[in-house]
Design brief:
Layout (H helix, E strand, L loop, with lengths): L1 H13 L11 E6 L1 E5 L5 E6 L2 E2 L5 E2 L1 E6 L17 E3 H5 L7 H19 L3 H4 L2 H11 L3 H5 L4 H5 L5 E6 L10 H9 L10 E3 L6 E3 L42 H15 L5 E4 L2 E8 L10 H10 L9 H15 L9 E10 L2 E11 H14 L14 H6 L14 H11 L5 H14 L4 H17 L19 H19 L7 H11 L1 H17 L4 H15 L13 H17 L14 H4 L3
Parallel strand pairs: 2-8
Antiparallel strand pairs: 1-6, 2-3, 4-5, 7-8, 9-10, 11-12, 12-13, 13-14
Helix pairs in contact: 1-9, 10-11, 11-12, 15-16, 16-21, 17-18, 17-19, 17-20, 17-21, 18-19
Length: 601
């Protein structure tokens, strides 16, 4: 299904001349340095063509180049790309200063030159290729190593580079004759001569045994989404490697080119923890929807918001999905979306999740997700949380690299399928709350969403949906204990202005997990703090609040321990009660107005 969807994406985009997708035999690739030579092959300059991206990071410039060839194993050095490659092939520069690396670089360079000399007579007479061959015959490579920019090039592992004639606008691989040759070059390798029926299209053709490399962030440079080993469980009935799952060359080019195009797109790509997430749509032309607007909406749900206006992206996405779901923006039954998450796994790529469905269903799923995560919060908090914000709230120091493996894909799958959120999401959240004793807005929203979906799924008895704000009618013992703990903490804060340590720092863990052990002591401590309050009105209000909470709560039935779900209710009750102290009708002159900021992520 994944390969078929990628194949269809290529077929659609290849019919659009403005799509920028590579035609057969070519691919879009980043180059970081260009060797400038004259028509006699003399070295003139080493051009640094790197550019800064939106985050200020230097990246290579994209060019339409001859298609790279798959290479792996001990004989990978025998395969070179035409007129471009890394500095080992182009200049014979070793990646390390060892005898083995030096010898390998020499062999790579000889293969690179041999490929140029093997080109057809009509093409080898091209002035650009003749200049490159003269460059090697005159041994001009040493001049490149003496250029001031060489140190920057050599410091980049596997730096890709190519050639350009002096005063030409295009680099040599972009010349029309070379591009035409690459587009018509369909001669299979010695291994690729067997025919079969393609599992993507059903057409008969030459089977592609080594598929193109499609590396993602964090993977090796030769990582592939489709790869087979010899003499492994994939071999059967005398068929090895890709012969057991045949894909013909044209289909292989189409799906790998589509994948690489999506991986290089600003509109279809984002990152969540270690996962690379791709999203694209297939829909009828609709003038009411801007190009890539659905893609932008989806990515806004996942990515970090802009710092200058953190709510603008998510708010726009939410409005778009509401318009689709309510019918303000019409959608057709053929309007589909595709979501794919990939993660690095040694020399291969793992599929974290894959989902395709209608755009209207997607809108409904996201609106349900928004509703589940809706909870009362400070005006200074984000209106809607992105997936990255949600996941970082479960990680140590809120760092993406500390997010639990597979959690991003599991949560994303729950959203797209309308299923309960994974238990790992709640477990990691509770772990951070216990460690930091901090129930902020994001963590409270996670617990609310998890428990609400669990309640709707009817898979766990005793689990109830959680409202957005304080629910005075909720008589769940864990929720009441959380509310009570928040009131006791507030009394202590007002009785001891400026205190740096409260009962939350000392007793949150015990009260939320084994309340019977600390409940009597906290109630006695409460009396001490109440006696120190000078404002009698506040004292009476606190006593009324406590009375309302403990009404019907039997001390003899105080639980000796609370399950993980009940600890979630405790945290939500605590958060709801804390937020109620800062609503406009309840805030008074003695309230600490900075508390709402303290509770923010």
């Amino acid at each position: 299904m994944i390969l078929q969807a990628l194949y269809e994406y290529y077929q659609r985009k290849s019919q659009d001349p403005e799509s920028g997708i590579a035609p057969p035999g070519l691919e879009v690739k980043e180059l970081k340095f260009i060797i400038e030579i004259d028509e006699e092959g003399s070295f003139k300059n080493l051009l640094d063509v790197r550019e800064k991206d939106d985050k200020g990071k230097l990246r290579g410039r994209k060019y339409l180049l001859p298609l790279s060839k798959g290479r792996s194993g001990k004989n990978a050095w025998q395969i070179a790309n035409l007129l471009w490659d890394h500095y080992g092939y182009v200049l014979g520069h070793p990646k390390e200063k060892t005898e083995e690396s030096i010898e390998m670089a020499k062999k790579q360079n000889s293969v690179f030159i041999a490929l140029l000399k093997s080109l057809p007579f009509g093409l080898i007479k091209d002035s650009g290729i003749q200049a490159v061959l003269s460059f090697y015959e005159k041994r001009e490579t040493e001049k490149v190593f003496s250029h001031p920019s060489w140190a920057d090039c050599a410091s980049i592992p596997g730096c890709n580079m190519s050639f350009k004639l002096l005063d030409d606008v295009l680099i040599i691989p972009e010349r029309s004759r070379i591009k035409e040759f690459c587009s018509n070059e369909t001669v299979p390798t010695e291994e690729e001569h067997k025919e079969g029926y393609c599992l993507i299209t059903g057409e008969k053709g030459i089977i592609k045994q080594l598929h193109a490399q499609t590396p993602i962030r964090g993977s090796k440079s030769n990582a592939k989404i489709v790869a087979f080993q010899k003499k492994s469980g994939f071999d059967s009935y005398g068929k090895e490697q890709a012969l057991n799952a045949p894909i013909i060359s044209s289909s292989e080019f189409a799906y790998t080119t589509a994948l690489k195009t999506l991986l290089n797109s600003k509109h279809n790509l984002t990152f969540i923890a270690d996962a690379t997430v791709l999203f694209w749509t297939q829909r009828k032309k609709d003038t009411s929807i801007k190009e890539n607007e659905y893609e932008a909406a989806f990515l806004n749900m996942l990515s970090d918001p802009p710092k200058d206006n953190p709510d603008v992206g998510v708010a726009a996405a939410k409005m778009l999905f509401e318009s689709v779901y309510t019918g303000k923006i019409s959608t057709h039954s053929e309007d589909q979306y595709f979501a794919l998450a990939l993660s690095p796994n040694a020399a291969r790529i793992s599929v974290r999740f894959w989902k395709r469905g209608s755009l209207k269903d997607l809108a409904g799923r996201f609106l349900e997700h928004f509703e589940d995560f809706s909870i009362i919060h400070s005006d200074k908090d984000y209106e809607t949380l992105t997936l990255n914000q949600i996941l970082r709230a479960t990680a140590f120091e809120y760092k993406s690299e500390n997010i639990h493996p597979n959690l991003a894909a599991s949560v994303m799958s729950s959203i797209l399928n309308g299923l309960p959120y994974p238990s790992t999401l709640m477990q990691q959240t509770m772990r951070r709350i216990r460690a930091e004793r901090n129930v902020n807005r994001t963590r409270a929203a996670i617990l609310k969403a998890y428990l609400s979906r669990l309640a709707r799924s009817n898979t766990r008895k005793g689990i109830k949906e959680v409202p957005m704000a304080l629910d005075r009618g909720n008589r769940d013992i864990a929720y009441l204990l959380g509310r009570l703990f928040a009131v006791l903490e507030k009394i202590q804060e007002e009785a001891n202005p400026g205190t740096n340590t409260t009962i939350r720092d000392r007793f949150y863990g015990a009260m939320s997990s084994t309340p019977a052990t600390v409940f009597p002591m906290l109630m006695r401590l409460k009396n001490h703090h109440l006696s120190k309050l000078e404002n009698q009105g506040r004292k009476i209000n606190f006593e009324r609040e406590i009375g309302e909470i403990v009404e019907g709560m039997r001390v003899e039935e105080m639980p000796s321990n609370l399950s993980l779900e009940k600890q979630g209710y405790f945290a939500i009750g605590y958060y709801h009660q804390r937020q109620s102290f800062f609503t406009k009708k309840e805030v008074n002159a003695n309230s600490d107005s900075t508390e709402s900021i303290k509770n923010k992520e």
